[in-house]
Fold each of these.
Amino acid sequence: MSSELDALLRENRLFPPSEDLIKASNIQKWMERYGINDYDQLIMRAQDDPEWFWDELARELEWFQPYTDVLKWDPPHAEWFSGGKFNITYNALDRHVKTWRKNKVAYIWEGESGQVVKLTYHDLYVRVNQMANALRSLGVGKGDRVSIYLPMILELPVAMLACAKIGAVHSVVFSGFWAKAFQERANDAQVKVAITVDGFYRRGKVIPLKENVDEVLDGIPSLKHLIVVQHAGCPVQMKSGRDFWWDDITQEQEKECAAEVMDSEDPLFILYTSGTTGKPKGVVHIHGGYAVGTYTTLKFVFDIKDEDIWWCAADIGWITGHSYIVYAPLIMGATSVMYEGAPNYPQPDRLWKMIEDYGVNVFYTAPTTIRMFMKYGEKWPQKHDLTSLRLLGSVGEPINPEAWIWYHKHIGNRQCPIMDTWWQTETGMHLITPLPITSLKPGSTVKPFPTVKADVVDDAGESITEGGGHLVIKTPWPSMFRTLYHDQERYVEAYWSRFPGLYLSGDVARVDQDGYFWIQGREDDVLNVAGHRISTAEVESALVSHVKVAEAAVVGKPDQIKGEEIFSYVTLKEGYNPSPKLKHHLREHVRKEIGPVASPAYIGFVEDLPKTRSGKIMRRVIKAKVKGEDVGDITTLANPEAVEGLDHAL
Ligand code: PRX
């Protein structure tokens, strides 16, 4: 393996797609319609006239009233398809039940314990309508916010689509977060109704979500009602007048529900993501442009055909699931696999078994998952027939060439191109990505999607071709976020002020001599742990909220499987002493404040943290220490002896 890899890196070998794949691809057929001969011509034409490109694709969806302008761009404010009347759920469901797709399977859902449920477009349509009517009966209307705190069960997409159908704004909270995180997000969004579950399965254990939620409900003053899905059958307490069982509130409802006629720019959802402060950012996406952008990228990047089985093995609690498990595949009329549980449960071949069982054609996952399966070895995928696969995908963090090659060889049988897609919660859709007609280089996300102008710039905002720099996007795209929820100032400040008119992604990247992009990671204090975005400040504030902790510093340490691990150093308040028990308590505390994904892999107790004279914690120094690198110049520190203290941390 490693000699193969060395050769690969030396040669900078290109992996071209097969002629058959190119010929049959959606993008090739689309290009032929417009007399476009190849990828370079496509990029030129789309960059010359982005409005032509997006107008053509937007017309493939159904508008209640046509838009008057494709784009109005007053940086940093974009309006796409303005004047258009639209509803994303109408496009995901109502449009299909009028056609032969009515009885096509929309979701094949598999529970962790192996039960399977198949929902057709018509089944889903009815469930969504009944839920939408139920929400209306609770007084939820256009513009109201609804928090959805559900695991990977079918009620999750149903609830999202139901909100969107009546114009309510959903805010999904990842079920792996703990109730405090749910409370913080529900309060920020001022939600009227929340939807949760009695419990769900993870590695055979029941996680009692409703019981956790009960601890924080009184701390969400805007909340009027809680809807509870019965799933794990664990005992829960229901508060009369406030709490309703999902089945009780939906089953008597009408099976039809008229879609709210929305403006193209009306908000669709808020999804919280980590920024550089402890306060999560409420990223706002809208109906029209988000639908067009996600639909187009799924169609062209993952090349989904009507007969395909598509599996995006992410969690719907993150943007990947919003865009590519819920909205885009349904707008396309695709059949998706959805899985409730852990990927290596009960055995490390769960995913490969499911690919075989359902004949999955296109499979999308994260590098951290691939690295975990590399560790288990190729004997697990070898037990299964994976020849149904045509294309693979990767997202969430840089994929190291070794993992890329393993994925290509052992999952893709050396036949399947890997679409390494770069994008973010804020971008809504893939922005820098291969297409099935481009040649690949392992570890590179290839080139910007048609119409997207991405660049790498230095501190002065000048394009650079040597070395790494700030990854920026120079032109608007339809599914870009429109603002941060009730924090327009932070939207402008965090993304658009460093280089006015350019979108600052927060990533460092490099472009090679062929124009291929190589993403190197975040440039801010945001960690990427197993593909999850976690801010150091958020973990620090969780640690210092413990009664015994005075200060905390959190940094990332590179990890072979997870990408990064969370390392933390804490100082204790007077009168408290370090102990293994306290370490355990602090870990538990972070789990409860944020969730297991944020729990530090390492906690060290120190007397003092290295600080500048103005009192700012020097994370740079701590980071260097953790990585075993030279700490560099520490003469500006107020307390250089603290650096040595890190070595003796308990
Ligand atoms: O650092 C980049 C990394 O994930 C960040 C976005 O995280 P989030 O908003 O949670 O969305 C993840 C799913 C889209 C980016 O700033 N990232 C995402 N995709 C890639 C990536 N890094 C390298 N290669 C990718 N393909």
Note: The longest helix spans residues 121-137.
Amino acid sequence: MNIQYEDRRLPPILAKVEKGERLSAEDGLALYRSSDLLAVGHMANIVRERLHGNVTYFNVNRHINPTDVCVASCKLCAFGKRVRDPKAYTMSLEEVWQRAGHGWSEAVTEFHIVGGLHPEITVDWYCEMLAGLKQRFPKVHLKAFTMVEVAYFAKRFKMPVEEVLRRLKAAGMDSMPGGGAEIFNERVRRIICDHKIDGNEWLEVARVAHKMGLKSNCTMLYGHIENEEDRVDHLMRLRALQDETGGFVTYIPLAFHPDHTPLEHVPKTTGFADLKNIAIARLMLDNVPHIKAYWVMMTPKIAQVAQRFGADDIDGTVVEERIYHDAGADTSQGLRRSELLRLIREAGREPVERDTAYNRVERSENAFAILV
Ligand code: V47
């Protein structure tokens, strides 16, 4: 292809991308160090269109955060509260089930369920919560509990990770979200989330889950105190595990939101950084099928542009997001289906509603008459 890139480090990377060759850690660093965002995005778009053509996926989901009580006091987090904090909340089982059915429930194909590390909730409670959701909403996929939560359950319930997962799966858990990975580098992790499992433990829980047939997502939290080497290291470690298990479905880069956290002094990420993280992920994670531009985190405007910079997914209607909004996100709590369709179509992409496993969900536009 006869294309002139401003940055002389990039044409050899383009040559690899065109041949479908795997990029190295050095290539990843060169991409992060380049300010030729259009060139990086152009390369990512080549890969994205090779994999997914013109399609952008979205889903209709609902987030449920049963508790914000958390024994960890991560500096990155504005959501978790101590158990005795009068502002902390823990839903009853009835509340979880009731809340799950609020709003646009008839269209929802997925519940995304995560919460704090609560020191008193029992394994039976979690299982009953899942079983009750499955009973009431048998068609809804339960994407529940991060690797961090599962590792904590294993410690607290004195069970091997495999046994925890077996019980949750038997109760109705269908797959796992990608949160809690943050940045694997230990130096950074000790500062931003000292009380969490380390990077190797996060990867080990994912390995066990994948080997038991559970699919999961994966994430990276960027825009705090990490550097370019830390980001490339994180992507390389995810890629290595994916070579082994093939269990990651979607990667979601998460921009750090500093408001109301002990890291409040850290400046917010820019649109430039958000797009670069999407594009570099698409280029480096050649074995992860989907890259999601999570609109709640990067705003609908940037998530829309990201559909031309490597992303093929924009997440969903969400409804009632807490973790980012507690940390100052000024995006709305949910997007209507019609708004998502407009964003995607304006980016020149074909919107495809998917379920959690990326099967197409067919609906007539009329089915949403009362929802849009
Ligand atoms: O684990 C916490 C991050 C994650 C902050 O799997 C923060 O489909 C920014 O994992 N600023 C939760 N980030 C969100 C998450 C997610 C979101 C959407 C889809 C999926 C999926 C997963 O948010 C946490 C942590 O990494 N986080 N606090 C903060 N102040």
Note: Residues 228-245 form the longest helix (18 residues).
Amino acid sequence: MPVLAPSILSADFTNLSKQIRLVEMGGADWIHCDIMDGHFVPNITFGPLIVETVKRITKLPLDVHLMIENPDKYIEDFIKAGAHSVLVHFEEVVHLNSTISRIKELGAKAGVVINPSTPVKLIKDIVEYVDLVLIMSVNPGFGGQSFIKNSLRKIKETVKLRNEMNTDFLIEVDGGVDLKNTEDILNAGCDVFIIGSSIFKADDITATTLEFKNKINKKIT
Ligand code: DX5
Ligand code: ZN
């Protein structure tokens, strides 16, 4: 069953618990937390303190996307704060096998993320060790950007790689997902839909979450 993971990056932080309640009511499966440090990406968001706060607000699994330099230094903090899964960027981590093992040893699911310009073939030798592969469909840093079209091809390539390597990670897509392109992304083979502005900037957050949920479950809305 595909997973719907609203990203709180675009949520109204003046009332985060209500915003999370609204996506829960619409059937959200996970909550995606975007961690940015102003170095790896040109934006700064929040750290373990907010992840720990979100953990107290919801029982949904927290999918923590680290867009930071030197993520190894902070992995333990985010897992202690309640991360269910921790995703690190291929472009940033030098000793990826060690980082992935450490995330798992600390009790979380481990994922690798590739930027739009990073070819899928470069992650071939790590995919058998990960639980998640995240294909960035925008350049990371900000919500509300347009979906980069060749991401569909990259999702298909990742499905192929998963078959070739006879493994079973989930494929996540992050950036520019909207109600118009969701079906194409689903058909390409995406398992986890990360959606920020299309949900949190909608007039009716719960109804929109439900609409996405029905779309990814191929129900007629
Ligand atoms: C972008 C983040 C995304 C972001 C997606 O750097 O990794 O998770 O929240 O937002 P939308 O859905 O608005 O593109
Ligand atoms: Zn993200």
Note: The chain has a mean pLDDT of 97.
